[in-house]
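Backbone-to-sequence.
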């Protein structure tokens, strides 16, 4: 087993494709596949499930990945510690988040962080469910995780806000044709839906919302990625419940507010609230992350606004779940 093999495994998981991972790593696909198979032989179990249109972790792979990431992270940190002190000025920040949060909420906070610390290195890992984030945090592979509540975590947890979900339909859908802004989920009970695979944390949210409305949604298609659900629903494959923050202004479909509203609470968690740069980033995330209700995203924060943000060491606002 080598660090290269673990790096290759991480690339395949993040790209959900051997082809894209090989392109990203600038290696041939056969060489990449050979290294993954060698790693699986060393572990003694398959780590990846190879499907026709995607690649995903097996149960053993899900258990192994946090430790592989932690090992890579530790090796990277060791390199920086060994460098001359003058090269230690940059601040490294390693973030993990659920797919929908990484795309819809994290970017504004990272932008402000980079303006404050332009020489810092930020790495963002994306996962489908909160359990993977907690496992990775426990293994020491990340500095901060952003997830949905409730969360089984004994360390510091910071509430960030409430993320609203909306119903996405195609522009020519009869329900959207009358110009209404709200829709009862029960009106869509007979439709086939765009649903999430079980490893996406939104799968349970959607199932609960539909159950509350008195029905079990039947699938037109299941998708792993939340952004793909937006496009599939906008194309007319069926309604989808997606976070409002995921939707671009020109996404090509129609969004309606579900009646009753559907939402989930978002939190940030870490192993300690006492590391200054970690608590500072969570402060930025809580104040400027794009967790907004019924309001289009505005322009990026100005440099003046960045200067007014709480500085490292200010009130952290953490609690313990």
């Amino acid at each position: 087993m080598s660090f290269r093999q673990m790096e290759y495994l991480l690339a395949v998981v993040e790209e959900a494709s051997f082809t894209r991972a090989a392109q990203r790593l600038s290696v041939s696909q056969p060489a990449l596949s050979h290294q993954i198979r060698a790693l699986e032989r060393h572990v003694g179990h398959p780590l990846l499930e190879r499907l026709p249109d995607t690649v995903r972790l097996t149960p053993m792979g899900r258990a192994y990945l946090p430790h592989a990431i932690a090992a890579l992270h530790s090796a990277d940190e060791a390199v920086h510690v060994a460098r001359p002190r003058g090269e230690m000025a940059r601040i490294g920040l390693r973030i993990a988040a659920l797919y929908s949060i990484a795309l819809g909420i994290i970017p504004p906070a990272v932008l402000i962080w980079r303006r404050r610390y332009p020489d810092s290195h930020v790495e963002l890992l994306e996962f489908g469910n909160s359990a993977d984030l907690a496992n990775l945090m426990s293994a020491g592979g990340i500095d901060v995780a952003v997830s949905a509540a409730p969360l089984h975590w004994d360390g510091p947890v910071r509430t960030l806000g409430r993320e609203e979900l909306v119903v996405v339909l195609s522009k020519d859908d009869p329900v959207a044709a009358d110009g209404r802004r709200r829709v009862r989920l029960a009106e869509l009970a007979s439709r086939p839906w765009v649903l999430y695979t079980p490893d996406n944390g939104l799968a349970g949210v959607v199932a609960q919302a539909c159950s509350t409305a008195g029905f079990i949604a039947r699938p037109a298609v299941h998708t792993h990625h939340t952004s793909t659900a937006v496009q599939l629903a906008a194309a007319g494959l069926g309604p989808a419940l997606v976070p409002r923050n995921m939707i671009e202004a020109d996404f090509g479909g129609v969004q309606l507010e579900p009646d009753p509203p559907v939402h989930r609470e978002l939190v940030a968690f870490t192993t300690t609230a006492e590391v200054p740069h970690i608590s500072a980033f969570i402060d930025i995330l809580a104040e400027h992350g794009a967790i907004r209700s019924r309001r289009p995203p505005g322009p990026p924060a100005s440099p003046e606004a960045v200067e007014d943000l709480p500085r490292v060491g200010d009130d952290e606002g953490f609690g313990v779940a």
